[in-house]
């Protein structure tokens, strides 16, 4: 069991949660975690780099001059890649780098990523995050009270416009609803900040997935 302290926004301890590692898969599945991260990075690639091949370049397809008898080297049409203005010989085209994983594997990879953060003491749980209006200064103050000084993924139970707008101008800080969590995003940040409600939601979903 892992004892996880719950803080308030002033950085004071107000509660403790006991987390059973078995709910998150007992141990970190590193091969599966790597597969999920590779998929996440691959799916971010655009793959739109392209060149014009000889079939796409303007110009006649007629042979420039006869094959023999001119004293010149043999040559094809003006669109060949050997001539100025011709097409690229091995032209790049649109390429889809996308990868896929079964839903169950993605869930297991997400749980392994969270468990890895827990085991390395990089998970912070706050009782609640509530902003009456967007205020970056207040959000920075909360992070300071919780001693979060490096990159952080803030996980909330459901989308909250005030929280998102308060955090969007803070470098290396992102806000994500718990239902959008994935291993790639989790591993892209040093710390994870959960609201208590969001963290309990993760544990409930993971336990339901096992059953």
> Which word captures the global form?
elongated
Count of helix runs: 6
Under CATH, the homologous superfamily of the largest domain reads: Ribosomal protein L4/L1
Which structural class do you get from the secondary structure elements?
Answer: alpha/beta
Please name the CATH architecture of the largest domain: 3-Layer(aba) Sandwich
Distance between the termini: 20 Å
Nearest-angstrom radius of gyration? Answer: 27 Å
- How many domains, in number, for the residues? 2
What descriptors fit this protein?
single chain; 211 residues; alpha/beta; Ribosomal Protein L4, Chain: A; 2 domains; 6-stranded mixed β-sheet; 6 helices; elongated
Architecture overview:
This protein has about 210 residues and is of the alpha/beta class. It has two domains: about 1-30 and about 100-210, Ribosomal protein L4/L1 (Ribosomal Protein L4, Chain: A); about 45-95, no CATH class. Helices cover about 30% and strands about 15% of the residues. It has helices at about 30-45, 105-120, 135-145, 160-165, 185, 195-210; strands spanning about 1-5, 15-20, 125, 150-155, 175, 190-195. A six-stranded mixed sheet has the order 2-1-3-6-4-5, sandwiched between helices. Helix 1 (about 30-45) crosses helix 2 (about 105-120). It starts with a strand and ends with a helix.
């Amino acid at each position: 069991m892992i004892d996880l302290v719950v803080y308030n926004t002033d950085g004071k301890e107000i509660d403790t949660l006991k987390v059973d590692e078995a709910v998150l898969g007992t141990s970190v599945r590193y091969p599966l975690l790597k597969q999920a991260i590779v998929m996440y990075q691959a799916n971010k690639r655009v793959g739109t780099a392209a060149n014009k091949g000889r079939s796409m370049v303007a110009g006649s397809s007629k042979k420039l001059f006869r094959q023999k008898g001119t004293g010149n080297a043999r040559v094809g049409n003006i669109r060949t890649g050997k001539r100025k203005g011709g097409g690229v010989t091995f032209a790049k085209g649109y390429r889809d780098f996308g990868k896929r994983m079964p839903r169950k594997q993605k869930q297991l990879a997400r749980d392994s990523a969270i468990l890895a953060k827990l085991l390395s003491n990089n998970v912070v749980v706050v009782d609640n995050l509530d902003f009456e209006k967007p205020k970056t200064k207040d959000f920075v103050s909360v992070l300071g009270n919780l001693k979060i000084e490096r990159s952080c993924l803030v996980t909330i139970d459901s989308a909250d416009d005030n929280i998102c707008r308060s955090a969007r101008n803070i470098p290396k800080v992102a806000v994500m609803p718990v239902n959008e969590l994935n291993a790639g995003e989790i591993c892209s940040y040093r710390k994870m900040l959960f609201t208590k409600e969001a963290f309990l939601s993760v544990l409930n979903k993971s336990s339901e997935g096992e059953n």
